[in-house]
């Protein structure tokens, strides 16, 4: 009697399984394949378009046809430094960004402190939702709503009318109020995260050593939370510096964003040269924030 033993064929491995095994054995290639699409999109679409825009700052325009002439020149930057109007616009924008940042820090710190150190867990969760809720609404809708509130027949002047006071809301002061409201959540959340990470043992040690509440706040809490304040200021400062929609709807004053937006069609090289101003300002601001250890709180 003859017995025939048929050897079983090895199971076939699918191409997907082979590819998965290959990437498992080569973690660097796996990481490269994972980041190829987003990094490629950022380099080509975002950074590429930004480089082309900034490159046009070194071009000129034909005085008769107003068309861009691709010849290297530094006249655009010379105009920015020599003409008072550009210096005034740049200073007005930087000043507005600084005032908005200070106002948001003053308003956000007590709110974040209550959320992180005082409120119960349930109240804390409700406050976090309340802070995030304005971000769910459209930016444009919020600005237009504020324009209605600050107008001559708006709620603000309606409330001030019995006192005989008239407030010109569609002004630089009104824009400051709008920016302060818009970017406040971006200041609250980093400060809240920084305060929440402060160990309770440090506060207890300060109390055991006889320090009063004010001393503990000034010498323990505030120094530890200061990098978080600087981290929040990066958002408020940069967002104010580059915004052009709110200034165009709230006030007739010119800011860097509105000038760039208006000049992009009639004089692209000067608009591109002016775009260097907020970039340089933010680079310097980020260098200062790094020295203050702000990135440790992000």
Radius of gyration: 28 Å
Q: End-to-end span in angstroms?
A: 79 Å
- Mean pLDDT, to the nearest integer, reads 84
CATH class of the largest domain: Mainly Alpha
Structural class: mainly alpha
Number of DSSP helical runs: 13
- SSE order, as H and E? HHEEHHHHHHHHHHH
Low-pLDDT runs of 5+ residues are none
Number of domains: 2
Percent helix, as a range, is over 70%
Fraction of residues in β-strands: under 5%
Query: In which order are the strands of the major sheet placed?
Result: 1-2
Q: Give the CA-based shape.
A: globular
CATH superfamily of the largest domain: MetI-like
CATH topology of the largest domain: MetI-like fold
Written overview of the protein:
This protein is mainly α. Helix content is 74%, strand content 1%. β1 and β2 (68-69) form a beta hairpin.
């Amino acid at each position: 009697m003859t017995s025939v033993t048929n050897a079983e064929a090895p199971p076939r491995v699918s191409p997907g399984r082979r590819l998965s095994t290959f990437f498992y054995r080569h973690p660097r290639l796996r990481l490269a394949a994972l980041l190829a699409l987003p990094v490629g999109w950022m380099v080509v679409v975002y950074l590429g378009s930004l480089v082309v825009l900034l490159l046009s700052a070194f071009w000129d325009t034909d005085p008769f046809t107003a068309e861009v002439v691709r010849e290297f020149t530094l006249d655009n930057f010379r105009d920015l430094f020599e003409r008072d109007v550009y210096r005034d616009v740049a200073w007005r924008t930087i000043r507005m960004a600084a005032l908005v940042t200070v106002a948001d820090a003053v308003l956000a710190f007590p709110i974040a402190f209550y959320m992180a150190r005082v409120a119960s867990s349930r109240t804390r969760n409700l406050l976090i939702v309340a802070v995030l809720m304005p971000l769910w609404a459209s930016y444009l809708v919020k600005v237009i709503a504020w324009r209605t509130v600050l107008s001559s027949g708006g709620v603000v002047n309606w409330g001030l009318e019995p006192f005989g006071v008239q407030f010109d809301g569609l002004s630089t002061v009104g824009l400051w109020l709008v920016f302060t409201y818009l970017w406040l959540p971006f200041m609250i959340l980093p400060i809240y995260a920084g305060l929440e990470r402060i160990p309770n043992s440090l506060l207890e040690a300060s109390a055991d050593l006889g320090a009063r509440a004010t001393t503990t706040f000034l010498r323990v809490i505030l120094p530890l939370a200061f990098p978080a304040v600087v981290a929040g200021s990066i958002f408020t400062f940069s967002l104010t510096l580059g915004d052009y929609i709110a200034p165009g709807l709230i006030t007739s004053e010119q800011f860097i964003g509105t000038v760039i937006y208006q000049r992009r069609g009639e004089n692209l090289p000067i608009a591109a040269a002016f775009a260097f101003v907020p970039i340089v300002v933010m680079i310097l601001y980020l260098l200062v924030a790094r020295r203050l250890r702000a990135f440790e709180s992000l």
